[in-house]
Amino acid sequence: MSSNKKKFLLEGKTKKIYTTDNKNEIIIHYKNNITALNGLKNKSIQDKGMINNAITTLIFKFLNSCKVPTHFIRKINPIEQLCYKVNMFPLEFIVRNIVYGSMSKRLGIKEGIIINHPIFEIFYKNDALNDPLINNHHAVFLDIISYKELNIIHNISSNVNTLLKEYFLNKNIILVDFKIEFGKYKNNKILLSDEISPDTCRLWDKKTMKKLDKDIFRKNGDDIMDIYMEVLKRIG
Ligand code: UDP
User: Fold this and answer.
1) Whole domain around residue 196: which residue ranges?
2) Which among 80, 201, 211, 221 counts the fewest CB atoms within 10 Å?
3) Cα of 178 to ligand 1 centre, how many Å?
């Protein structure tokens, strides 16, 4: 049985991590904060942690049921979940099905164009460098990861995209793009980690094309709780 002997380990922009008395497991605590522009915009919104924990839990349970290797064990209370402890790669993996956001700006391509073959991008998590876009050769050169591991991650990401596109479409939601992160468990097995929520995905209503994600906050700082609740209701 996993433990309740919680010890604070670290705190990020939207989560706190605690160790348990099982050295292979951690508790992830979802804070109420929402951030944008690398933390420049930061706001606390009541119940946001609870809703993101609920949404991430549903998505990771679904992925676990599809045999995707993830860190998720179970939700332990409204704002916390128990997960396998992994060594995170300092990389963000983005998968895109429709052109939007940074890709549109970088390449001068109109937002909204459908991408027939999903595009994969790697960003190096480094605040001082403003999280630059890199490729697989840079990641290996930086000694962060091996080609073999990148290949495994590419395959998992592609599978996650296929699964989640369908999962959301069944709820009348289009999966535009998303960010995922990976870590290595004690046996070096690569596990999908972190969260998957409207904070980390672009989700559009299929009929109205209304945004159901963090872009609402990025653009005008509006409260996002009504739309995050809407996502939870649809997938719950
Ligand atoms: N994303 C994220 N965390 C980041 C950067 C991006 O979760 O630090 C997600 C974002 O919500 C979107 C996708 O990754 O679903 C692609 O984001 P993009 O590169 O277009 O960046 P943006 O336009 O948001 O700056």
Assistant:
1) 88-223
2) 221
3) 7
Mean pLDDT of 122-141: 97
- Say yes or no: 212 and 109 in one domain: yes
Residue nearest (by alpha carbon) to ligand 1 atom 23: 101
The pLDDT assigned to 39 comes to: 80
- Whether the full predicted model's pTM is greater than 0.85, yes or no, is yes
Atom of ligand 1 nearest to the CA of 131: 8
Q: Which atom of ligand 1 is nearest to the CA of 38?
A: 8
- Does residue 6 register a pLDDT over 80? yes
Overall average pLDDT of the 48-72 stretch? 98
CATH code where residue 71 lies:
3.30.200.20
Q: Which of 14, 102, 215 to mutate to test the pocket of ligand 1 (most atoms within 8 A of CB)?
A: 102
The whole-angstrom separation of Cα 143 and Cα 7 is 30
- pLDDT single digits (tens) 186-224: 999 999 999 999 999 999 999 999 999 999 999 886 779
Tell me, in angstroms, the distance from the centre of ligand 1 to residue 202's CA: 8
Please report which confidence band the pLDDT of residue 4 belongs to, taking 50, 70 and 90 as the band edges. Answer: low
Among protein residues, the one with the nearest Cα to ligand 1's atom 11 is 200
The last residue of one of the domains, among 26, 51, 84, is 84
At 5 the pLDDT is 86
| Helices and strands in the chain, H and E counts | 6, 14
- Give 76's contacts (C-beta < 8 A, 6+ positions apart): 27, 82
Do 12 and 62 fall within a single domain? yes
Residue by residue, DSSP assigns 117-166 as EEEEEEEE--GGGT--EE-HHHHHHTTS--HHHHHHHHHHHHHHHHHHHH
